[in-house]
């Protein structure tokens, strides 16, 4: 079966397409025929640096990817037989970019209702879970003025959806080239550039963009700011700073799926590439302004 493998730390162009054996069903396993995969920053970071992420160190060779959507084609005798033939979202931190994958962790499989598409479900990987961590940080902070950098990103758009309704004053910050896209996605919100951001006292800056220069500009412009970041682990400043990350909880993903089904949550999706163009998909996601989650698909 086809798999996308990392064998070195030469970046996106170092990826290889390999034919590897299909995994064998185990008593505790569920075999999934993969249809749709998200392109997430975790992968291209790991493709250049074994220590780029805090989740796990990278040992090579490895199948890339951390999540996928597919159809269950076989179920081990110690697993729920009702999963057979169901579409599922699966988290598989040991690699998901293969035509078939074997999942042995019941907490990592989420059956999908008919009214949630493969594409929307795949876009839940590395998105709303992180946004929820940011939402909780906002709720725990005393600030009423909330500045959000990278508001047009996938995580930014999920976060702003989760904050509706809110008593906070929201100041989404996007680049001039992303303002039109942002207003297409969330027309009820006003966006700001760093130049048009009003002078605010005691704001909480939610940092999704990960730009120290942007944080410098905002903290200089606004007095007594605090920062919560998912993109920077440290920030060389006297400004109060906290790094947060997603704490995986299966119950959260069950909620996200229900919210997709009821349209209380909309998954932002950009381009879809065939899996044989995974390198091109990663380059596009890495090099372009965020316009939603980039996906790749298998054509079985």
TrEMBL record:
Keyword check for rRNA-binding: no
InterPro entries membership: GroES-like_sf
GO terms of molecular function: mRNA 3'-UTR AU-rich region binding; NADPH binding; quinone reductase (NADPH) activity
GO cellular component: cytosol
Keyword annotations of the record: NADP, Oxidoreductase
Listed name of the protein: NADPH quinone reductase or related Zn-dependent oxidoreductase
Organism: Paucilactobacillus vaccinostercus DSM 20634
């Amino acid at each position: 079966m086809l798999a996308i493998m990392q064998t070195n730390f030469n970046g996106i162009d170092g990826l290889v397409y390999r034919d590897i054996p299909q995994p064998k069903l185990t008593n505790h396993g569920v075999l999934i025929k993969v249809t749709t995969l998200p392109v997430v920053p975790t992968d291209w970071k790991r493709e250049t640096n074994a220590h780029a992420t805090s989740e796990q160190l990278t040992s090579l060779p490895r199948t890339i990817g951390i999540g996928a959507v597919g159809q269950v084609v076989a179920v081990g005798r110690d697993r729920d037989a009702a999963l057979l033939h169901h579409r599922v979202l699966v988290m598989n931190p040991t690699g998901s970019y293969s035509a078939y994958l074997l999942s042995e962790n019941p907490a990592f499989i989420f059956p999908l209702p008919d009214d949630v598409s493969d594409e929307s479900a795949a876009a839940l990987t590395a998105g709303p879970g992180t946004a929820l961590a940011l939402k909780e940080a906002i709720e725990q902070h005393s600030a009423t003025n909330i500045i959000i950098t990278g508001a047009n990103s996938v995580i930014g758009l999920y976060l702003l959806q989760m904050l509706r309704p809110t008593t906070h004053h929201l100041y989404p910050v996007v680049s001039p080239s992303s303002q039109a896209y942002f207003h297409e996605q969330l027309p009820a919100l006003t966006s700001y550039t760093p130049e048009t951001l009003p002078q605010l006292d005691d704001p909480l800056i939610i940092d999704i963009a990960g730009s120290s220069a942007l944080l410098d500009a905002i903290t200089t412009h606004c007095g007594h700011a605090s920062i919560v970041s998912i993109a920077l682990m440290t920030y060389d400043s006297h400004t109060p700073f906290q790094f947060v990350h997603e704490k995986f909880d299966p119950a959260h993903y069950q909620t996200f799926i229900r919210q997709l089904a009821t349209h209380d949550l909309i998954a932002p999706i950009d381009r879809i590439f065939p899996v044989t163009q995974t390198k091109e998909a990663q380059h596009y996601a890495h090099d372009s302004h965020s316009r939603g989650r980039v996906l790749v698909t298998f054509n079985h």
